[in-house]
Design brief:
CATH topology of the largest domain: Lipocalin
Helix content: under 10%
CATH architecture of the largest domain: Beta Barrel
Mean pLDDT: 88
Low-confidence stretches: 15-21
Structural class: mainly beta
Shape: elongated
CATH class of the largest domain: Mainly Beta
Number of domains: 2
Strand order of the largest sheet: 2-3-4-5-6-7-8-9
Length: 281
């Protein structure tokens, strides 16, 4: 009888442990999809189908601080029939002062290469060139210092400063709700999202987060607020059906408008929301 009682107690404890450990885990997680790259499909010499992938950097080929100093470009190209990516480095300049608007090179060693004073790659194995004023769908290509051959291109993905920004509510690491922050905040180029506080209170999910966008993305990191940030603090509440029932935000700081406000919130109690600290007169 004592043995049976012990077995029963042990079984109850095991069941309790199972139910206790079955408590769900949840969290809001940020997700941003960037489109800051360009892809093209094309042909070299009307014979060889290729694909090109390019990303533009804020780095400059030369140490010049002028607006027309060539901007570094990185990427790859491949012959479609072979499917092997060949690293590319180069530079672009779309100002009227530039004779060449895009140069791409295949370096001998993609981890160790150097440019000359005119931003040409020293010892390039291959090169693509697009003269200023040419249509964006045409270039020339050559091997080493050999003959140039025409390259026809068609853009399959255009470079875009806009992003797709989301907050994902995950329960047990499974996505349950996606909040479209572009639509909610009316900001189309969100750069960064940081979760500051999150908590479930009375069947409602609360999250306080910061989100930012570049002040002047087209300045390429230079000029007035070229590297500046516009920062916001937001508060979202979802109900038990995972619908957004409340959203508000505070414009915390701005490079363009030169201000930095203090935003107050209780990290332990995000359900209390956010507010701007008012300066005492």
């Amino acid at each position: 009888m004592v043995y049976c009682t012990r077995i029963t107690i042990l079984s109850i404890l095991m069941l309790f442990s199972v139910f206790a450990s079955a408590k769900s885990n949840w969290a809001f997680r940020p997700n941003i999809v960037f489109h800051r790259y360009k892809t093209c499909q094309g042909m070299i010499a009307q014979k060889y189908p290729i694909t090109i992938y390019l990303e533009t950097s804020t780095e400059r080929c030369s140490g010049s601080a002028c607006n027309w100093a060539p901007q570094m470009v990185y990427g790859w190209y491949m012959y479609n029939k072979i499917g092997k990516k060949i690293p590319l480095v180069g530079n672009s300049c779309y100002a009227d002062a530039c004779d060449i608007q895009l140069r791409l090179f295949v370096p001998e060693d993609p981890t160790d290469y150097h440019f000359d004073e005119k931003c040409n790659l020293i010892g390039a194995k291959e090169s693509f060139v697009q003269q200023n004023g040419w249509k964006t769908d045409s270039m020339v290509w050559r091997m080493g210092k050999g003959k140039y051959y025409p390259v026809s291109l068609q853009t399959t993905h255009a470079f875009d400063w806009n992003t797709q920004a989301y907050l994902e509510l995950e329960i047990n690491e499974i996505g349950i709700k996606t909040v479209d922050l572009n639509t909610l905040t009316h900001k189309q180029s969100i750069e960064k999202i940081t979760i500051l506080s999150q908590k479930k209170v009375e069947n409602q999910f609360h999250v306080i987060f910061s989100y930012s966008e570049l002040s002047n993305p087209y300045a390429d990191g230079r000029g007035h607020c070229g590297g500046g940030i516009e920062l916001h603090i937001g508060h979202i509440t979802l109900n038990k059906s995972y619908e957004v029932v409340k959203f508000n935000s505070i414009y915390k700081s701005s490079c363009i408008n030169s201000f930095d406000k203090e935003v107050i919130y209780d990290k332990a109690h995000p359900e209390e929301g956010i507010k701007e600290k008012v300066a005492m007169p």
